[in-house]
Amino acid sequence: MIAIDGYEANVPERVGIGRYAYEILRYLYLLHDTHHTYRIYLPNSPLSDMPPETPWWQYRILQPKKLWTLFRLPFALASDRPKADVIFSPTHYIPRFTRLRRVMSIMDVSYLHYPELFKPDDLYQLTHWTAYSAAHAARIFTISEFSKGAIIKAYGVPSEKVVVTYPGLTNHKSKITMIKQDIARKYNLSDHYILSVGTLQPRKNFVRLTEAFSLFLRENKQKSVDMDLVIVGKKGWLYEEILAAPARFGVADRVKFLDYVPDEDLSVLYKEALCLALPSLYEGFGLPVLESMAMGCPVVVSQVSSLPEIAGEAGIYVDPKSTQSIANGLLVAVRERDLRQGKDRIARGLAQAKKFTWERAAKETLNILLNVGRANA
User: Fold this and answer.
1) Which residues form the domain of 267?
2) Same domain, 8 and 54
3) DSSP three-state, residue 3
4) What is the pTM of this model?
């Protein structure tokens, strides 16, 4: 019996760790054979797109959800029968007070490198709860070799305890029903735009990106009469400066904040964008880069953290702390978009994106869970 904390997966608007948790669950379900069963713990009834219940895939709704990791989930793990062999938490936090062997996921440790970019309450929880979890977990999944190295260095865990399972690409091409004109009309966009995707928070570097975009417009006047910067992402934390940046840099009429958009719409936005810009200060993986490359969209990314690992030879690399460097990257992407250099870069991106699949990630995850569970039996 494999127990899974489904808290993060069972949300309507999945980004970041929510997307990761959902896709791993979905593909574990698709990989099922007759040798093991699952019990998924949720704070609410499963959403309609969660895998349907079967005799071997059961949901357990736990209320109230307050103190989920400290008490509610551990109590259920102790009392439910048949007893699980392993508990998998696709989050930074494992349940306390359980004798089960625990497996967790850590996306990145950006909170240790840029603590000033996090709210105090979030920082305290990430710092202290993740440290406890890393020390007591039987295995730690992470999403890049860069993050693996950072976790080992931060928490002093042995290398064999940390397992890289690269996220995959969610295929929304079959769901695309809109064309460029429909998307432009729905979101009030110009014909030409540069796209950026990510939760509105300081480490995504949206303030510098906005300044770089204003610089790009000045240096590319003859071709930028009708061009926007489109930022897709929900409000996270410390986002006030981000929302104020367009007015501050004189591009208030050129920057569009779209909040969350459905995946099928986002696929069209990728496909029609001049390029994706992700000059983050720190990324554990950078899923928008993968999604962009798969849709034939050039990517302008930071030369730091995991992004070179993900974009490979397809990336246009910039210094995330230099607005001039970011602006130069945008210029290269836009000017070369339809030239041989740009087309070659797009082809390399398409090939790079094919290396990453959720099916592979789920298979690797399942193998580890089964091995850990057998050791617990």
Assistant:
1) 173-353
2) yes
3) strand
4) 0.87
